[in-house]
Structures are given as structure tokens and as C-alpha cells.
Amino acid sequence: MQQYDFSSTDTFSSAASTSIQPSEQTLQNIRSFARSYQIVMVDGVKVEFYLN
Q1: If you write DSSP's letter for every residue of 2-52 in order, what string do you get?
Q2: pLDDT of 13-24, one tens digit each?
Q3: Cross-strand pairs, 38
């Protein structure tokens, strides 16, 4: 797995929101098959992106 470079300046006018949470098994599957990832700190919170 390799680090993904977020270099795009594209923005969206509205944020998506949902109350649905994926199961732990779903998250494990995403992590297992991800080809790249990025870790970003936002207001002191670590956000991990796994990309296929």
C-alpha cells in the first residue's frame, strides 16, 4: 500500500452527511484491499482515508 497524494483543489458546495455506520468487518475489508491511504489531522482529530 502506498501513500496517496491529495493534490486536487476541487471543492464541493455542500457536505454529505449520514447517520449510517459501517460494521467493523466492512472497515477491515476496506483496509485489507486498499491500494493507497492518507492520514490527515483535522482540528486535532486523525482521519484515515483508504482508497481502492
Answers
A1: EE---------SS---------HHHHHHHHHH-SEEEEEEETTEEEEEEE-
A2: 556 666 778 888
A3: 49
